Structure formats: structure tokens, C-alpha cells
Amino acid sequence: MKNVRLLGYIFILPAVLAMIMVHIIPMGWGILISFKDLTIRNIRNWQEAPWCGLKNYIKAFNPVTTVGQRFLRSLQNILVYGVVTISVGFFIALGVALLLNKPFVGRTLVRGIILIPYITPDSVAYNFWRFIFQSRIGILNEMLLRIGIIQEPIMWLVGRNTIWAVIIASIWKGWPLTSLMLLAGLQTIPMELYEAAKIDGASAWQCFKYITLSYLKPVIKTIMIMNILWNFHAYNQFVVLFGENVGIHAEVPNTLIMREAFENYNYGQGSALSVILMLMMLTITIVYLYVFRAQRDE
Amino acid sequence: MNRRTPIQNFFFYLIIIILLLFVLGPYAWMISSSFKTAVEIQGMRPTWIPQTFTFDNYVQMNTTVPILRYFKNSIIISTGTMLAALIIGTLAAYGISRFNFWGRELYIVVLMATQMLPGILFVIPYFMMFKWITDTFGLPMTNTFHGLIFTYTSFALPFSILMLRNYLDSVPRSIDEQALIDGCNRFQALYKVIIPLAKPGLAAMGIYAFIMGWNEILFAKILTSTKTRTIALGLLQYISQHQARWGQMMAACVFATIPIIIAFTAFQKQIVAGLVAGATKG
Questions:
Q1: Residue B275 — pLDDT band, cuts 50, 70, 90?
Q2: Which chain B residues touch A128 with a CB distance below 8 Å?
Q3: Domain presence at residue A11
Q4: pTM value?
Q5: Would you call B101 and A9 a contact, using CB atoms and an 8 Å cutoff?
Q6: Hey, what domains does chain B have and what are their CATH numbers?
Q7: Residues B171, B166: Cα–Cα separation, whole Å
């Protein structure tokens, strides 16, 4: 028996070692330097960089400092981005999943096609969206002008509209995966339930609410927490659509941290911001799991 | 379920068509633009169909940006990541699936938790760690293939292990036991019996790691430069402050999508099954 147990350790050993090296140590390192005043001047001898206590953390939440102001705004932006992208994406995904759950000619083909945005590499997808959003030579403005929704070309990639541009592109890229998962959930629902409900005189809405939604609940729960966390990871879409200069209206924590660390060379400050981001994600996950567990017990 | 009336049917298919236009429209724009001349892109009102059809963009995309080299770099890095993740991940997934050791549950929780950590948390430490390794051991890390493969493998591992473990759990343990009785040791049982049975699961995991390597931007941005730059970053170089070569960029985009499309169509079933399993069991 003992031997068998030992073997288990041998099998996971390479993965454990790899993860200690690439997750645990760097994470500790990151937390450590977030308490240091680490800049371009002392990056080579990072051990000798002066400790600065909570200075980097306090600065992050102080709206008087440049960093604080930017960080708070980036949180505001990611909140708007996340709420709109996730909710709109979810409703499109749910609608399409319900549609694709019905039999029709060419269903398999359509199901394959809707997955294409999901498998397209981020850099490719957001690059062609960047082209679509061009104000003069892009196809989106051209179509909107033709239909007559707008009179003047919209500047999508500069100024106020940047956040909407990135939201549109992200929804387009993100909903297929959600839809696929919902569809998988829908297919686990036994058809007899609907038939029984119909005999009992349930309306279509009641069927949806009490059968479909209650069966989908676990899947939706997973999808939501995954989407919320991914939303905080969002980086590719911003850097591809806007290049180096994201601009204040679409600045999010990740782009801000990258700039703070690798353009302003404030590595300590950048680390502090990423630790704060991690703590936020952790809190959200715990609260989320707690709320759902509480619901289940009722 | 109910039969649809002709009118319902009409609206049903109308919605499907609108949906397909929404999904495929951007690709049509990408492909059509890749065949347009620069003059047409810059000078005329945009149209869906090129007025003069040209292959120039495909011919010239490599002169503006060394996209073929970046493509080769990405192939090396993604394939390396895939192989490393497959080897380490299979061992770990087999370990979790077949053995009951102290700390197993904890290890699974850690695997799930690491997926939640923001990548940005690791960028600065990696940047420093790579410098430190080079300074201390004289081993170059930044701007090397092995540096990036190492980074990507570690980030692909947690999800890969969990995904493959789900798969291995569905392979009955009695098969292992039979192999052990027939005189295999554990490693032989894994190598000769379980791996051939787990091919679909392995395919899903390998493709997942490959696509991750192909797509990644955050770390590639900091840890590579001209020699090892990946295609994901290379695509951005068509737009400079002086000139925007949209036609060539769209041609390069088409080019960069090909390996992913091939990989996906070849293993569509496994990938979809793997993703769905991750979602419904998690």
C-alpha cells in the first residue's frame, strides 16, 4: 500500500515542481517586491531596493496621485466593460443555444460555424476588428452611414467610444463558448419533463423558468464565475485594438500595470497593483461561491 | 416538439441567417481586404468585394514584417508547449486519477485556484526571475524559445491536468490492474495501455496547450524580442506611426489563422467534449 502511495507522488512530482517554480515562487516574489521601491535604477540589485511598506498600496487608492487616479478609473472601466460584455454576451449565447437545441436543417453546420470566433486567435480577431472600426476606411461606419443610423463617421478607436468598440469586439469573440456550454447543459434536460409539464397545462414561459433554467443553473454558475474572472484578465483585446496608447477611456488594470512597470519602470508599484487585482478576484470568487452555497442549502 | 408553421419557419431561418452574418461578416471583410490594393483600401469608400483583385498583399506581407519567421517561432514555441504539457500533464493526471495519496484533494484545489490568478501578477516576477537566472547561472532566458516554452507550459498545465484527469477517470481501473497482472509496471501500464486508450483526451489537451501558445500576448510582449517574437505580436507591426498596411495585415491574419483552423477541424469533437466536460463538471 505504501508503495502505491509513493508512486502517486512520483507521477505528480514533475507537475508539482514545475508549478512551484512557475507559480508559487514568482507569486511570492511579486508580493515581496510590491513592498519595495523598485524602479529602473535598482532592478539589477533588486534585493537592495529600499523597503517602502504599504506606500505602493496606499498610492493605488489615493485619487490625488496619478497612479491612484488612473487605477481607480481603470477599475471603473473594467466594471463597465465586464457588466456589459458578460450580460449581453450571455443573452446572445442563451438565445442561440435555445435556437440550436431545436431540430432544423443544417444544425450541425451552424453549430460548427458559431464556434469559429472562439477558435480564432485573439490577435487575428482583434486586428480585423481594429480594421472594421477604422473611422474612414472601416466597413462598420460605412454600413451605418448607408443605413442612415449615423450621419457622421464615428471615431471608434479614439476617445469616448473606445470602451464600446472593445465591448463589441469582445462580445463577438466571447459568446460562442458560453453558448456551447449552455447547449451542452440543455441537452441533459429530459424531454419527458416538457411533455409532462404541457399535460399539466404549463405555459411556455413556465416551462422555461421551472425546467430549462433550473436545469441550466449549475452550468450558468460555472460560466458566470469563469467569465467574471476572465474579464479581469482582459488584456489582448485592449492592446491589439488600441496599440500602445489605450487612452483613458479604455484603460483597464492590466494595461495600466503593464505601462506602470514597463514604460514608467515602477516595478514595485506595478506589482502592488497586480496583488490588489489578485485579492479582488479572490474576494469575488469566495463571495460568489459562498452566495451560491447558501442558496443551495435553502 | 411542435411542428413550426411556415411563418414561424421563415422567422426561424431568418434569425439563423442574421446570426451567421454576424459571425462570418468580419471574416468576409478580412478575406476580401486581403485581396484589395492599398490604393483601394485607403482611397475609396469601403466595399465588400475588391474592385481590383490582387495577390500583392500575400506576396509582400513578408517584406514589411518578417512574418514567416514569426510564424516559424510560433510553431516552435506552441509545439514545444504542447509536448511539454502532454508529458508532464499526463503523468500528473494519471497520478491524480489512479492513486489516493495524502494531499491529493489539496493538490486538486491548488490546480483549480491557480487558474484564477491573474497572469499580470507573474509578468514582473518573470521578467526579474529570467534576468536573475541569466546573471546567476549564465543561462539565457529572456528572448529564447525555451524561456517562453517553460512559461507557457506552466500556465497550460493546471487546466490540462484537470481536463485529462476527467478523461482518465472514465477509463476503468480494471484495465490498469489487468496490465499489472500481465507483468507491466505502472509506467508501462500507462505508456502501453492507458495512453492509447486516452488518445482523444490527450488530443484535446495538446490542442489546448498549442492554441494557448499561439494566442498568448502578455508574456510574449515582455519576454521576446525580434529573434523569438511570436506571430501574435508580429501582426501588430503592420501598423506603425507612419504607415498602416491593412491589406498586408489582413493577408497575414488569414495566414496566422490557418494552423488553428486545421488543428481545430481535425480534433473538433475532442476539443468540444473537453471544453464541455470542464464546464459541466467544474
A1: low
A2: 26-27, 29-30, 250, 253
A3: no
A4: 0.88
A5: yes
A6: 58-281 (1.10.3720.10)
A7: 9
